[in-house]
Design brief:
Blueprint (H helix, E strand, L loop, with lengths): L8 E2 L4 E9 L1 H12 L6 H7 L10 H7 L4 E7 L5 E8 L6 E2 L27 H9 L6 E2 L7 E6 L3 E6 L7 E3 L7 H11 L4 E5 L6 H11 L5 E5 L2 E2 L12 H6 L6 H6 L4 H9 L14 H7 L10 E2 L2 H14 L2 H14 L6 H11 L9 H5 L21 H17 L5 H15 L3 H13 L7 H8 L1 H16 L2
Parallel strand pairs: 10-11, 12-13
Antiparallel strand pairs: 1-5, 2-4, 3-4, 6-9, 7-8
Length: 479
């Protein structure tokens, strides 16, 4: 019985090397128990495995479709009571019809015909079908594929695609419970809704001939078919998967819309970014509003090659669209990010800071960290950070005192009022502007990076600016 031909199997999902050998009944029983515990196997498969079924009644194709691992072991009971173990090994080639035999002929006359098609129940007459259905026999409805010749389907992006009919399966269209599967349901829905273009991912290419043939079988006009390129991981190796989310979020990225919103990405930037993965208008235009894309997008400029997700480019687009927002709209969109950090940002101040922060925002979530100091009564800088480079804490404190004295004498903190005398102070001190203004920036904002200093001082107001500079003098004096 070893290596004896038991039939032909159409293998899918990259499985080949169909080896058959005898197995003991207790092995068969244990395998059934382990399969019954598996949640990823369909009910009809578990039902088949739960009893001894002649091999001609089993669909090996179904077993292969259900396989999740590199190796799948399956067991069948033959008509003469022998138990047969099948080992399906994963490979990376296209699907194929595989037949392993140590002798000529097929003694089992199994359920797979010589053409590689499912032989059972393909050629029943209408009367036979009706009789068996009326008798209550459980059944499914399959699409009866042609067994010879080839089928050519046309993709708008990829051109004509021709497949040999002998490689096509008799796909199930309606399950035994009467529920139509996607292949049939989608075709009917598209026809009734008068869909003109079906645009989907290239992972649907294997069943593309089936969907086209369903339309032809009903005599319906086919829509234009477009199979888009896949998105690859940022490394360019492997298809992007939802399982990558956890790792991406650690780096401040994602590809789920809700995540992107919380990470500070604008809807306009998301649309722009995605549009340019697999499509281009020309060799230099990269900024597109939704209105631009409506006017300029065309299917003929799509690229069938897979596109690696580029988050650096995404950040770039997000910055462009942030800077393109009107001030009032930017202020409105920033507010939820302040509130999420427990910062009660008032609308009036948001409108004032929007023009001076937008050039520095890469994402909306940067706003609280960059501009949170505007909404605080006091800030507490690190004392050591206040020390001017190349000066001692005591010398830095003296510089801070001069700044306080000058600011106290000013009538207000308007840009044109405060900046000229401060620059004059820098010249008189013999220090560089970066040294003096660096001290002021940290004292007033408690940050090394902030929006423009004098514009920020104007918004904060004289009282708070002077108060924060006095606190800087205290901190420097304590060192």
């Amino acid at each position: 019985m070893n290596e004896e031909l038991l039939g032909k199997v159409i293998l899918k999902n990259g499985y080949s090397q169909f080896r058959l050998r005898q197995a003991k009944k207790n092995v068969f029983t244990r395998l059934i128990e382990s399969w019954d515990a598996a949640t990823d196997l369909p009910e009809d498969l578990r039902a088949l495995l739960a009893r001894e079924v002649p091999i001609e009644s089993l669909s090996a194709r179904l077993l292969v479709e259900s396989a999740k691992k590199d190796t799948l072991k399956a067991l069948f009971a033959t008509r003469d009571g022998l138990f047969i173990e099948a080992v399906l090994m994963r490979h990376d080639r296209d699907r194929r019809t595989v037949c392993v035999s140590s002798q000529a002929g097929c003694p089992m006359k199994c359920s797979f015909c010589a053409t590689g098609k499912l032989g059972f129940k393909r050629n029943l007459t209408a009367e036979e079908v009706k009789a068996r259905v009326d008798a209550g026999e459980k059944h499914v409805i399959r699409f009866k594929m042609p067994v010879t010749g080839s089928t050519t389907v046309r993709d708008l992006l990829r051109g004509d695609i021709t497949v040999e009919n002998r490689t096509l399966d008799d796909y199930i269209l309606v399950r035994s419970d009467g529920l139509a599967l996607y292949h049939l349901a989608a075709a009917v829905d598209d026809h009734l809704m008068k869909i003109t273009h079906v645009i989907r991912g290239s992972e649907w290419l294997p069943t593309f001939p089936l969907h086209s043939l369903i339309h032809r079988a009903f005599g319906w006009e086919e829509p234009e078919w477009v199979h888009l390129s896949l998105f690859l991981k940022p490394s360019g190796k492997g298809k992007m998967s939802k399982r990558e989310r956890a790792e991406l979020v650690k780096d401040g990225y994602s590809f789920f819309i809700k995540d992107l919103e919380e990470l500070g990405y604008l809807p306009e930037a998301i649309v722009n970014w995605i549009a340019l993965m697999g499509w281009s208008y020309d060799d230099h235009t990269e900024f597109f509003s939704l209105r631009d894309l409506v006017e300029k997008f065309s299917l003929d400029k799509l690229n069938p090659s897979p596109a690696a997700i580029n988050y650096t480019k995404f950040d770039h687009f997000n910055g462009l669209h942030i800077r393109a927002l009107p001030v009032t709209e930017l202020a409105r969109r920033m507010k939820p990010f302040f509130l999420a950090k427990g910062i009660h940002a008032d609308d009036a101040t948001l409108l004032r800071i929007a023009p001076i922060v937008r050039e520095r925002l890469q994402g909306m979530d940067d706003a609280p960290e960059l501009a949170g100091f505007f909404f605080k009564e006091d800030v507490e800088p690190v004392a050591a950070d206040l020390v001017i480079k190349e000066l001692t804490p005591a010398e830095s404190a003296e510089v801070a005192k001069k700044i306080v004295k000058l600011l106290e004498a000013l009538p207000d903190m308007n840009l044109e009022t405060a900046e000229p005398p401060m620059r004059e102070l820098v010249e008189q001190s013999g220090l560089k502007a970066g040294q003096v203004f660096g001290l002021m920036r940290i004292a007033i904002t408690a940050q090394h990076v902030s929006p423009p200093l004098f514009e920020s001082m104007q918004i904060i107001g004289k009282d708070k600016v002077v108060s924060r500079m006095r606190r800087a003098v205290e901190l420097l004096s304590s060192l």
